[in-house]
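=== RUN LOG ===
request id: a7f3
mode: sequence -> structure
chains: 1
length: 220
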Amino acid sequence: MLTDDAFVLHKINYKNSSEIVKLLTRQHGRIDAVAKGSRGKKSPFKGHLQPFIETTISWQGRQDLKTLTQAEQSGLVGKPDYLNQVAMLYCNELLLLLNMDEEHSTAVYPIYRDLIKSLYDNQPVALLLRYFELNLCALNGYALSIDEEMADNTALMFQPDHGLVVSQADKFCTAGTFRRFVNHKALTDDEVRGINRLFRPVVNHLVGGRPIRSRELLRR
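=== RESULT ===
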């Protein structure tokens, strides 16, 4: 039996009263586990398998699908704004679509945990998500960078085979804006919109063009 801290990324009803729980764990990466009888009224799992709350779990099994034996919430529960809740859903969906290996999932755990805390604190959503996406790019081998000698007013765009390159058409994000972004400097509203536009094709490439359903909720 193994014990670890974890976040619930998604749950699927399984058989009559159980669930398959997709989890991001601190030391063991991504795992899937059956929570037997978790939908029953008297289940010990009742109320302890909620997303966005750090939870101490125990499980057993050597197969790809583990068996959850215990779960107890250890994180604090807050009341984030609706937009921040949708942002959390978006982050979970990205992690599920990427299906990272154990090493990368373990590396993303503290980044995800800090992000969830910031979203619970109702901090502005856009840049929090962009920094999370930037970290995911680096972990998946798509570290975004630009030439140090590139002029600040140079417009940027993303090309899957080359990364960030000079743009002749899209003028929404400049090298200077990107430098301020990666250095966590203050950005204007227009610059934030430029960063958002720059990252959209980056994330599309990262997930292999698969649809991200929660993204539509964020756009609305």
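=== NOTES ===
Residues 102-120 form the longest helix (19 residues).
Helices lie at 82-98, 102-120, 125-139, 175-182, 189-206, 213-219.
=== END ===
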